[in-house]
Amino acid sequence: QTLSAAANAVRDAETVAALTGAGVSTASGIPDFRSEDGLWNEYDPNDFHMSRFRADPAGFWRDRVELIADLFGDGVEPNAAHEALADLEAAGHLNTLITQNVDGLHQAAGSDDPIEIHGNGRRAACTGCNRRIDIDEAVQRVTAGEAPPTCERCGDVLKPDVVLFGEQLPKHDLMRAQSAAREADVFLAVGSSLTVEPAASLPRHTVDNGGQLVVVNLDRTEQSKRADFDLRADVTEALPRLTETVLEE
Ligand code: OAD
Ligand code: ZN
C-alpha cells in the first residue's frame, strides 16, 4: 500500500533524487552513528573534530588506523539496498544519488557518480594541495611510524578525505546536491536520521519546490513530519521491493 504508492510516485516522477545515510550500510557490517550500537556509543564525536585534527594530527592518525581497518577492510561489500539504488539508476528512475556515507559502497554496487557530500574514507587528501592517495597507503605509512603522513608533492599533512565536524562541506558538491534536490519531483531519503546539517535540509528543497518526499528508515527521522510517504522499514528489504515495483510496468 504505502510502499506501492511511493513506488508509483517514483515511477511517475520526471526527476528523482536520493540521499543515503549510514543505515544503508549497516547490513554490510558498518555501524551507523546514532543507533544503540552506533559509533557514537563507542567513540566521542569530539574526537572527530577538525580542531582535534589540527591540534595533534599524529595522534589523530594513530588513534584512527584501527577504526579505518575495521570499517573499510576486506570483506566489506555492498548489500541489497546499495544494489536496489544502482538498479533504479540504471533503469533511468534515479537521476542523482547523494550520500552522507564515506564508505564508497554505492560505487562498488555500480552507482555511476554519487555525490559524496561528506567525502570518502577510502582516500587521504593533502591539507595543502589536495593531492589524494589511497587510505591503505596512508595507514601503512602511519603503522610504519610516519605520523602524521605527509604529502609527497608539497610536504603538507595528509588527512582522511572525510568531512570532520567543524569543517565545511565541499562547496561544489553541496551546490550540486542542493540543485538536484530543488529540481526533483520525488526525493528519497533512506537510512539516515536526517539530523546533521546541511544534508538534513536537502529534502526540504524538494518539498518547498512542490515535490514529494519518501522516507525509508527503521526509526522516525527529523524530516518524517514533512514526508508524503514515511516508510519505517529495513532498507535492505524495502528498497529492493520499491525498485521491483517501480520497474514492474
Ligand atoms: P545516523 O546513525 O544518524 O542514522 C542512521 C539511521 O539509519 C538511524 O535512524 C537508524 O535507525 C537507521 N538504520 C540503521 N540500519 C537500518 C536499516 N538496515 N534499514 C533502515 N534503517 C536503518 O546516521 P546518518 O544519518 O547517516 O557525518 O548520520 C549523518 C552524519 O552524522 C554522518 O554522515 C556523519 C555523522 O556525524 C560525518 O561524518 C560528517
Ligand atoms: Zn600536498
Attribute tags:
alpha/beta; six-stranded parallel β-sheet; three-stranded antiparallel β-sheet; 9 strands; binds 2'-O-acetyl adenosine-5-diphosphoribose
Secondary-structure element order, N to C: HEHHHHEHEEEHEHEHEEH
Can you summarize the main beta sheet? 6 strands, parallel
Summed up, the helix count is: 10
What ligand molecules are bound, each kind once? 2'-O-acetyl adenosine-5-diphosphoribose, zinc ion
**Radius of gyration, in angstroms, nearest whole number:** 19 Å
Query: Taking all residues together, what is the mean pLDDT?
Result: 96
What is the number of E strands? 9
Strand content: 15-25%
Distance between the termini: 17 Å
Strand order of the largest sheet: 3-2-1-7-8-9
Topology overview:
Elements (H helix, E strand, L loop, with lengths): L1 H11 L3 E5 L18 H4 L7 H6 L1 H16 L7 H11 L5 E4 L5 H5 L5 E2 L2 E8 L5 E3 H9 L14 E5 L8 H13 L2 E5 L11 H7 L3 E6 L11 E4 L2 H12 L3
Parallel strand pairs: 1-2, 1-7, 2-3, 7-8, 8-9
Antiparallel strand pairs: 4-5, 4-6
Helix pairs in contact: 1-10, 4-7, 5-10, 8-9
This protein binds 2'-O-acetyl adenosine-5-diphosphoribose and zinc ion.
